[in-house]
Each structure stands twice: as structure tokens, then as C-alpha cells.
Amino acid sequence: xxxxxxxxxxxxxxxxxxxxxxxxxxxxxxxxxxxxxxxxxxxxxxxxxxxxxxxxxxxxxxxxxxxxxxxxxxxxxxxxxxxxxxxxxxxxxxxxxxxxxxxxxxxxxxxxxxxxxxxxxxxxxxxxxxxxxxxxxxxxxxxxxxxxxxxxxxxxxxxxxxxxxxxxxxxxxxxxxxxxxxxxxxxxxxxxxxxxxxxxxxxxxxxxxxxxxxxxxxxxxxxxxxxxxxx
Length: 231
Hints:
By secondary structure, the chain is an alpha/beta fold. The protein is built from nine helices and four strands.
């Protein structure tokens, strides 16, 4: 393996527009890999989540009695858990595979927010540079979308939903305090895709990877007709 490798992490709570943003990045030339979850009615153009890494992320949170919608903070010293350490090793192995196939690859999963330190450490250990892009959406829209999507099993109260979105916002803000994070708004992505994506793509290391971002394809990937639950 020669040359610097780069990983783009897409950060955001579920139903905040992470799939739309990831699809635009993929159209522009970021490699999200071949092992992606299939498209479904919630994301008819695909979620752009690596199937293996998503399962590992889910298992890592479950190992400490957490999931993507937990309102409780992660336990103290949770990364010392034996199961978590084993799963972290599996994540590193999968990331090495990705490094071997692409100089600029993308990762998207809402669980990347609570697990950010795991990926930050793993990418540093294997010699990849991390880039982060976060997307934010109106809290009421996110709550309505989660309710309709079926991602949350059981009753999803509005107050708890807003608290969950706020928690993700705070976690992303904490990440941005120590790591550069490009930020965008869902409304801007939908209403002004060319301006919004030009800004996002310019900040990513296409040039360092010998690539030219295809802004036209990225913009064309944004379909406002698929936008639901807008305020």
C-alpha cells in the first residue's frame, strides 16, 4: 500500500439526510465500497452503509447495552470491554480492506457518531487520514421521519425524539472541538444542492487522491421528490 489514504465519515442522526449526502458524495467520486445495504422504501436510492461495518457497529453498542437511539451516555471505560476490543479489531481489519481498494473511501452509519473515537483511532493506526462531514436537519422533521421509517421499535415520543437529535448534535459538536468537521444543512442540500455540494466537495481531498469530483453527478443525485416530513 503506497501513498496517503483518506476516509470520509458522514455524521448525523438517522433520517437527517445522511443517505442523500452520502449518495451525492458517491456520485462525485467517493468510494463507499461494494458491500452496501440494499435500497429499500425508506432509502430508494440506497443508504450507502457498509453492511459489515454496520453490523459490527451495532454489535459494539449492544456489547455495552446501548443502541443508536440510546439517550444514556456511553459507560465509563466502555472500550475496555473484551467484546468491544474484539469488535474494534474486526473494524480495523475491514478498514484495511477498504484502504487496499480505494484512496478515498466513504463511511456512513448514524452509529459513527457515538463510535467516532473507535474509527478515529483505527484509521490513525492503519495510516489513513480522517475527514468528517456532518449534516443537520430540523428536529421535528427528523422525529417524524423516524416514526414513519420504523427504525425505532416501539413508541417514539416527540420529546424523547427531540432529545435524541439534540444529543447527536452535542456529540458532533464535541467531535468538531478536536477534529475538523465540515457541516451542512439538509434544507440547503435539497434547496441549493449545487452551492451546498460545491462547498462540501471543495473541502475534501480529491486533489490529493488524484481525483476530480464530478459536481454535476453529485447535484443530479439529489431528488427533492424523495424528501419527506418537511416542516
